[in-house]
Every structure is written in structure tokens, then in C-alpha cells.
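Sequence in, structure out. Go.
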Amino acid sequence: MLAAGVFAGAINTVVGSGTLVTFPVLLAVGYSPVVANVSNTLGLVPGSVSGAIGYREELAGQRRRALVLASASLVGGITGAVLLLSLPGSAFEAIVPALIAIALVLVVLQPRLARVLAARRPARPHGGPTLWAGVFATGIYGGYFGAAQGVILLALLGITIPSEDLQRLNALKNVLAGLVNGVAAVVFVFFASVAWLPALLLAAGSAAGGQLGARIGRSLSQPVLRGVIVVVGVAAIVQLLA
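Output:
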């Protein structure tokens, strides 16, 4: 569990999809899907915080943008957590692989789409209402399950804020995903059953993994980072379909 937390913390900081490692581990040791999902969310919060700290240089100058989008993540994360405790587990099964596939296409086409959009409308430093709505919807998904939440966020950020460096958007993604997991975790602590030992082990591992992921991710060029996003996203789709 500790090793899974380290790996998840690292991959979440670089791209996302750490849940696809930790969630099956929790199921394998005998926890029900809802308890596993809840405990996984709590365990990965320190990794998100650690990754955001590791990317603090890239966050410089993005305070206003982060505050604007944080409201969408907070409301979305709470909504998703409530849905997890209210809806059957099959509710999102069909749509999740499709969401990730669309996000990957957007990541690959992002440079070209960004140029087209920039030529048609003035740049908006915070992405405008379209990005806010997209971050809110992603927050709902993240609070509910969250696998490849980072991939979807990076696709949205890259398309709607075309003038920004991908590494800086990755830093912002870590903050937004961390907020979603954090508010969902608060809901779960009060209203759900938590397996505390694995959650604590995941927390310790993901905190260390977040620092490792920041060191690796910040050293990657934009084309290489884009390639890593695609590889991880495709692996996520394959695992979810399997």
C-alpha cells in the first residue's frame, strides 16, 4: 500500500491517473468499492499538496487564475463526493473511458487548436466561463472517482489558456485536483466509512511520491510531457475497459 502510494503520488503530479494503481490495490486486499474509493481519496490528498509544493515556481503569477478556478473545483468536488455516497457505482462506468479519450485527443491537438482559438477570440487569462464550467464538471468527476482527472484538466487548461506554458498549467492542475480531493475527503470523513490504516499508508507514500513526481515532471520538455500524458491516458482507458 505504501509503495502504491509513492507511485500514485508521483504519477498524479506528472500527469494524473494514480487512482488506477491504488484503487485496485485496495480492492485486492478486500475492501468494498465504495470504502476503497473513499479511502483512496483521503490517501492521495497529501500527494496533491506535495506535488503542488514541488511545482511552486511554476505557480508564481497564477494566484488570480487559481482562485477563480478553485471555486469550480471546490463546488464540483463536494458535488461529486455527495454523488458517490448517493448513486450506484455503475453510474459513470460507461462515460469515463470516453471522457479520457476525448481529453487525450484534445491534448494531442492542443497546440493547433490553441492557435485557431487565439486567432478567433482575444486571450482570456483565466479561460473564461467555458473553462470554469469544464473545471466544475471535472471536479464532479474527481469527487466521484477521479481516475485520469489530471489528464482531463490539462486538456481543458491547454485549450482555453493557449498562451501559457504546459508546465505552468500542470502546476495549476495539481492545485485544482488537490482541492477536489481535499473537499471530497472532508465529506467522506464525516459521512462515509474510511479504512484508516491503508488511507494513512497511502498518505505517507503519496506525499513522498509528490516530491518525486515534481522533480521528474519539471525536467520534461513540453513535447515529452505531452507524450507522457497520452501514454498514461491510453493505459487508463485500457485498464478501465478491461
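Check: The CA atoms of residues 7 and 134 lie 27 Å apart. The longest helix spans residues 95-120.
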